[in-house]
Amino acid sequence: MTAPTSSGRAGRVRLPVDRGLSHSSPRPLGGSSARSRKSWTPWLYLAPALVVLAGLLVYPVYQLGLISFFQYTQAQVSGGEPTTFEGFGNYSALFSDSQFWQVLLATLVFAAACVVSTLAVGCALAVLLTRVRALPRLALMLAALGAWATPAITGSTVWLFLFDPDFGPVNRMLGLGDYSWTYGRLSAFFLVLLEVVWCSFPFVMVTVYAGIRAVPAEVLEAAALDGASQWRIWRSVLAPMLRPILVVVTIQSVIWDFKVFTQIYVMTNGGGIAGQNLVLNVYAYQKAFASSQYSLGSAIGVVMLLILLAVTLVYLRLLRRQGEEL
Amino acid sequence: MKLPSRLAVLLAAAAVVTACAPQTSDNSSSDKDEKTGTLRVWLFQEVGNKPKEKVVDSVVAAFEKKHDGTKVDVEYIPVETRAQRVKAAFNDPKSAPDVIEYGNTDTAGYVKDGGLLDVSKEFGAWSEAKDTDPTAKQSVTVDGKIYGAPFYVGVRALYYRTDVFKELGLEVPKTMAELATTARAVRAEKPELYGLVVGGAYTYGAMPFVWANGGELAEGKGGSYTSEIDSAAAQKGIKAYTSLFSDDNCPAAKCAGMGGNDTVTAFAAGKASMAIGGDFSHAAVEAGKVKGKYAVVPLPGVKAGSVAPAFAGGNNIGVLKSTSHRTLAVQLMESLASKETQASMFEAMGFLPTFGDVREKAAAEKPYVKPFVETLGAGTKFVPASPAWSEIDASLVLPTMFQEVISGKKDVAGASGDAAKKMDSAFGSVG
To answer: Which CDD domains has this protein been placed in (chain A) (predicted)?
Structure first.
């Protein structure tokens, strides 16, 4: 934790450079004149990154927010009708749409399921990697990297084929006849979940594996000598030591799985039977681009952004409370 | 995590400074009317596009010869991405074409977007226009003004397997009720075939059932529309269509997600004894396994001998408002949609002409179009000429309704009531 006097600034600019500086300067925060001079230095170093961020992140987000307050459809974009200011009109239309709440709930549950499954599979395989010989490890690594490198659209198409009711090998192997996986709401979500886990576990696995390798061998050896089981080692030794890494992969997974688009769009053909498999991102796309209601789509985008920020902030706050440093 | 504060400030700023509205392109009609230069044309890229290109090339060559100093630049755009391309053209008039081909259900939407040029005067003065069939003319008309020339029409009819019917000793169905019983009879004898292959997302294959039962999509009252999809008659049609999604005809688990192309593909691959396909599906079916083993009849209506009203699909040719060659562009539109071009386009691609007389001649030459011409003659229906239709279409209101009924999520009254509400709010929002 940085000194209390700097916490305000650290709260605003929490980037490694900043933290590094305040750590390395030997108690620089006492004298107020020295502090005011010093406080510009990090900004100077940050300037190039901030300029890029402003152009690539802030400006689009600004446009997104701006558009969400207007009546902005194709007719307005191409100049057929004047653009009118709607205030929170788009938001109230969105919040009074029962489908939106249904989609939001489905998105949250689906994303949570994906995150939990991805982390479980990724961590389990990372531990497995440390326990097997070189050749199987190489094979597992290659398989994981293959899954990682596969474009989402290709992966989705292949999975769809694997589970095809007429030609799919899965149904044949399981003896399911011509059972259609994409017809039922839950089975369709389950199918997509499998694909999402398949294409996102390698990131978790590789990151956690690297983390485990960095854990000193004597710690693990000591635990083993004390007679700890594999599960106990993970829970009491590895997981606490890997916490910063687990935080990063969890946040990454939350963000990815909350924003899942390609898999749903391809595998359930744009949202499933009667829109039963819509998630927020696909819903926003259907509103914004398929039916050209850019302003309503922007409103959905803003809502998504706020939810993700809230989730991430709450998570970070919880970690702070536990005295962990990210 | 410095976003929230930044975002809050920006949102506040956006709310306060309403003067800085999002960008809008200046798409007012160009005042220029140059008599020479390059005309850009966008046409749809069809499956097997070569014959179309040939016809267009000859039209273009004749046009360039007639108008000294003009050049015509034709580009074929993929049908799947047409929406993005056309939107982009409306947004950036500088790189937009002068003349485009567009789907007739898009007319009202494009007009509202401010993209299409009002050609009522030129169309009225065009010598060939008087023979245009009324439904085709309706598909270029919005609020009494004309925004293009019909290029071809497409209607759907009933494809059936002659070999299967003969083997099972079945008659060609004469009513909608018979259609269902015949379909089930085939499936009972040959479980590997769908009786009548139907699709939950196949709106234009489903609508004839609604129309035949006396239902309507919407009722126009003084320029604005009100949805009629939840009327008693329409509900009867929805019920008739959705009852076909059962294990004894076309299992819901497989058919609920199908669209029009999927059903035609299934029929062409020999997996169905009947399908509702268009004249434009002819080539695809001919290329499939069932070549020589099928015939086409108009889709039967409720009463024996009647024909279920078909949806009058098809494409139009229009001129973009932003063109700087107004006169030339309109003339080019007329040559591309002329009787002569349509006749050769029918020869080349099988597109049904929009002129009554040209169509009759075509039917006499090629017997396979007879059932489609008959269907057209029996009266066709069109979607509401409201800009809201693009939105209703794109937000999948009708497929959702059919799929909700098919999958048992809602009953017919509930699903059609919800669909009507969505349609009404779309109609309402465009005023």
So the answer is: TM_PBP2 (cd06261)
Q: Which amino acid would we find at residue B67?
A: H
Question: Which percentage of chain B shows pLDDT scores above 70?
Answer: 92
Contact between A295 and A68 under an 8 Å Cβ cutoff? The reply is yes
Measured distance between the N- and C-terminal CA atoms of chain B, rounded to whole angstroms: 43
B392 falls within a domain: yes
**Residues in a beta bridge with B294:** B161
Summarised one tens digit per residue, pLDDT across range B330-383 is 999 999 999 999 999 988 888 889 998 898 888 888 888 889 988 988 888 888
Give the structural domain span for B404.
Answer: 156-311+387-430
Same domain, B85 and B150: yes
Give the minimum alpha-carbon distance from A274 to chain B in angstroms, rounded to a whole number: 4
Is residue B302 within 8 Å of residue B322, measured between CB atoms?
no
Same domain, B148 and B162: no
ipTM: 0.71
B361, HSE (Cβ side, Cα atoms, 13 Å): 13
Number of H helices and E strands in chain B, helices first, is 20, 15
Number of domains in chain B: 2
Does B226 map to a domain?
Answer: yes
Among A74, A83, A98, A326, pick the best mutation site for testing chain B contact (most B Cβ within 10 A).
Answer: A74
Domains, in order of start, for chain A:
98-321 (1.10.3720.10)
State the nearest Cα–Cα gap between B265 and chain A, in angstroms.
14
- Contact, A70 vs A85, CB < 8 A? yes
Q: In 3D, which of B214, B260, B258, B217 has the Cα closest to residue B237?
A: B214
B291 in the same domain as B179: yes
